[in-house]
Write a structure and sequence with these properties.
The protein is an alpha+beta fold. The chain is built from 23 helices and 22 strands. The protein is about 50% helix and about 20% strand. A hairpin with a 3-residue loop joins strand 3 and strand 4. The radius of gyration is 34 Å and the shape is elongated.
Length: about 800
């Protein structure tokens, strides 16, 4: 026989095996396809998001460097541009735009009243910076410059189902017509005005875009600016003599020069200089890719692991069915390596079919994933090409893992003695596994009721493989749903702390620092809708220790404040009170000192100062940014007797919305929101994230069901004579199915317990590594709710226990005499 003929024989023989077991082949291929396809689809999202981010930020000429004055301070138009022109690297600047960014309340159609920002950008003939992308309507033209014509943020309008044109009313009753909807890169993800906390919902934060002249007219700040953004010329990486050698290093150099120029400016100004990498929307959008990729890789590998365990279990049973043929071959002197070709070729073909089917499965899973991403992150540009490299990687894993799974039972099969492999019937039995342990347990009722537990214990290796395959799927489910539990528990802790006292209070921010007993505070107190009005101070600062820094939002509180934080350790006096997460990130505890960079009032105006403060206490709010000072420590700000932040309680019978409406008439009020809404934005963002988790959960449940169906189907085949004997003795088919359901329910319960434990372990690891890297502003602790545990247990057990129902028709049509016949 020639080599070619021999190869042809192997191929024809393996094809015969495939045709003879086409149901099992299809089932195993589907399991592999789910693993490989899910892996490819989930990891493709990382490449899509990165390409879409790059295209969207490039389209709108996102700034490389930004200078932002302290809240409430402005300078004459042209002064910030002059500072930019004075630095040594001015020739590297491509485009410059001065802006006026003012916090404001926004009243929009559909009776909406939310905090927001008015962003006025200067027009110019040079390269644009932080352009507005129109998604509907139009942008203001030259004729609209200085007129009350604006553009409303696209995501705010979409979240609240607003029309493309309409009218908005801002603080002080300033009215403007919005003629279109648009986006600016800074607000791809809005911080909600809460000191860059990652509140990812746009529903309750409105951004209004205008020309600089229009913004100045609407706010009464004629000729004033408080912000400048600039782009830099591209660095030629091919020129070895050029320094700096990258765009990031050039931006850092320009930022350092601007800080130096502003520090020596006369009159003094207090400003924060930042680069594109520090832009919250930019940082979160890119950092989140890495974090999500870790989660999706774990999910995908768990699904693939489940597929590998399932393939190992199923192919082991197929090889076991060929045991007598392998034994005869060995008895005739055929080498074990040659005998292994047939089952290995069978496994290769099954893996190949699974991988090819996985491409289709990946494409199908990618469709809803793409829709969820576009809805959750509405960027101007979405780039979602077919990721060939990811699919090749998924295909390689999907092909190799099952092949390795096939190799192990084949290796075991060819190592037995021929006489052992040839034995059939009762002579082939090699022990009862762990089933003999049941003899020590008392039994009541009919003996056949022990069959489910005996079957589980009789083949412990097979049971273990099935449990591991299903447990991998349940682990994935628990990990993904556990993320929601973790964040919801964190937000519950934050809300509980904030609502511990005076839960109906409102936080009112002013556009500038005002006298605590001045006209603005008196105007708020005079409103019939307000009861108590407490003047306070809230300022953004940066705390540092050695090489670690944390951005904070410091509130000055005295002992008479309506609300004060819980002090876990230390005291509220004699220094700064930090969140436990901030203290951990700075590596400090009560009694340590930190350097605080903050705005400071001086006769020349606001300037940036540094003050060493003692950590007086630690509070439990998981939001890292919240910090508190007593009035004595706050004297370093030089703002005694001044306020930019009011705490207001509604008058009796007055709602928070009515107070907000009344405050809209006061021009100096930037925003007013009930304290209980502080965490609502993030909860909305979590609700949007549920779509992706539901897709992952559906895939994992389908995988668990397939594994259980395949295992049950093979088990029913192996026990066909047992079932035929039961039927011959008059046991009804429903009882046999009930026994099979009880058996799979036992396996499903064990797998679910292992899966819940594994899912919690993965969740703890992710909470300690991935989440802090992506969302450092929040201190999270891995949490699994009782509802999630019970739901995962119920879903795991019920899904697996339902598998025997697919065998009802075959059992009811069983030919009992033929099944009981044995050929020796």
């Amino acid at each position: 026989m020639t080599v070619v003929t021999s190869r042809g024989l192997w191929v024809r023989w393996s094809w015969r095996d495939l045709r003879g077991r086409w149901v099992l082949v299809t089932a195993i291929s589907l399991v592999i396809a789910l693993g490989a396809g899910t892996y490819a689809a989930l990891l493709s999202t990382s490449a899509w998001r990165r390409a879409s981010n790059d295209a969207s930020f490039a389209l709108l000429n996102t700034h490389d460097v930004r200078v932002r004055l302290s809240q409430g301070s402005t300078v004459a138009e042209g002064r910030l541009a002059a500072v930019v022109a004075s630095i040594p690297s001015a020739a590297s600047v491509l485009g410059v735009r001065e802006r006026l960014v003012v916090p404001t309340q926004v009243s929009a159609p559909h009776d909406l009243l939310v905090p927001g920002e008015l962003v006025g950008t200067a027009t110019g003939t040079d390269a644009g910076v932080d352009d507005v992308w129109p998604s509907a309507g139009r942008l203001p033209g030259p004729a609209d410059d200085g007129q009350p014509v604006v553009v409303l943020d696209r995501q705010f309008a979409s979240a609240n189902r607003l029309p493309a044109t309409g009218e908005v009313v801002m603080s002080g009753g300033a009215r403007a017509s919005y003629v279109g909807l648009g986006q600016q890169p800074e607000y791809f993800l809005s911080s909600g005005g809460q000191a860059a906390l990652p509140f990812l919902s746009q529903r309750s934060f409105a951004v209004v875009y205008a020309t600089l002249a229009t913004a100045q007219a609407l706010t009464g700040a004629a000729g004033q600016v408080n912000d400048v953004v600039l782009t830099l010329r591209p660095v030629d990486r091919r020129d070895p003599a050029q320094r700096p050698v990258s765009q990031e290093l050039l931006a850092d150099q320009v930022a350092a020069e601007l800080r130096s120029a502003l520090a020596g400016a006369k009159p003094a100004v207090s400003a924060v200089v930042s680069t594109r990498g520090e832009l919250p929307s930019y940082r979160v959008l890119y950092d989140d890719i890495a974090g999500d990729a870790k989660l999706w890789r774990i999910v995908a590998l768990l699904v693939l692991a489940g597929a590998a365990f399932a393939a190992l279990n199923l192919t082991a049973r197929i090889v076991e069915a060929q045991r007598r043929e392998i034994g005869i071959g060995m008895a005739l002197g055929v080498r074990p390596a040659v005998l292994a070709v047939r089952p290995m070729l069978f496994g290769t073909q099954v893996a190949l079919f699974g991988v090819l089917l996985g491409v289709a499965v990946g494409w199908l899973v990618a469709i809803p994933l793409k829709a969820v991403l576009v809805e959750m992150l509405p960027l101007p540009v979405w780039v979602t090409p077919f990721q060939v490299d990811v699919y090749l990687q998924a295909s390689a894993l999907g092909f190799c893992l099952p092949l390795v799974a096939v190799a192990w039972p084949v290796w075991r099969a060819v190592r037995v003695q021929p006489v052992e492999a040839i034995r059939v019937g009762h002579l082939a039995a090699r022990g009862g596994g762990l089933a003999p342990l049941l003899r020590r347990l008392p039994s009541r009722g009919r003996s056949y009721r022990q069959i489910p537990l005996r079957n589980v214990l009789r083949t412990p290796r097979r049971t273990l493989l099935t449990v591991l395959g299903i447990a991998a799927a349940i682990t994935t489910l628990v990990t993904t749903i556990g993320f929601l539990d973790t964040f919801n528990a964190t937000l519950d802790d934050a809300q509980h702390e904030l609502l511990r006292s005076a839960p109906e209070r409102l936080n009112v921010s002013l556009t500038a620092v005002e006298p605590a007993d001045g006209d603005v505070v008196r105007a708020v107190r005079a409103l019939p809708e307000t009861d108590t009005v407490t003047a306070g101070l809230m300022l953004p600062v940066t705390a540092g220790r050695q090489d670690r820094t944390v951005d904070l939002l410091v509130e000055v509180l005295d002992d008479a404040a309506l609300w004060t934080p819980t002090i876990e350790s230390g005291t509220a006096h004699g220094g700064i009170v930090l969140a436990s997460k901030a203290a951990a990130d700075l590596h400090v505890t009560v009694g340590d000192t930190i350097e605080v960079t903050h705005p400071q009032a001086s006769p020349e105006g606001l300037q940036t100062a540094r003050t060493v403060m003692t950590v007086a206490g630690i509070h439990p709010n998981p939001m890292r940014a919240f910090a508190y000072l007593d009035p004595a420590t706050a004297t370093a700000f030089g703002m005694s007797g001044a306020t930019n932040y009011l705490t207001v309680t509604p008058a009796s019978g007055t709602s928070a919305t009515q107070v907000q409406r009344a405050l809209l008439s006061i021009p100096a009020v930037a925003s007013a929101q009930a304290v209980r809404t502080t965490t609502e934005g993030m909860r909305t963002g979590l609700d949007e994230f549920i779509g992706i988790l539901q897709i992952a959960a559906l895939v994992t449940l389908l995988l668990a069901l397939l594994i259980a169906v395949n295992t049950t189907s093979i088990g029913m085949d192996e026990r066909a004579r047992d079932h035929a004997t039961m039927l011959a003795f008059g046991l009804p088919a429903r009882t046999i199915i009930g026994l099979a359901i009880a058996e799979t329910a036992l396996v499903g319960a064990a797998a679910t317990v292992v899966g819940i434990a594994g899912g919690y372990g993965v969740l703890v690891w992710m909470a300690a590594t991935t989440i802090p890297a992506v969302l450092p502003e929040i201190g999270v602790v891995a949490t699994l709710s009782t509802t999630t545990v019970l739901a995962a247990f119920a879903l795991g057990v019920v899904t697996v226990a339902a598998a025997p129902l697919f065998n009802i028709r075959r059992l009811s049509r069983m030919d009992i005499p033929s099944t009981l016949r044995v050929m020796e």
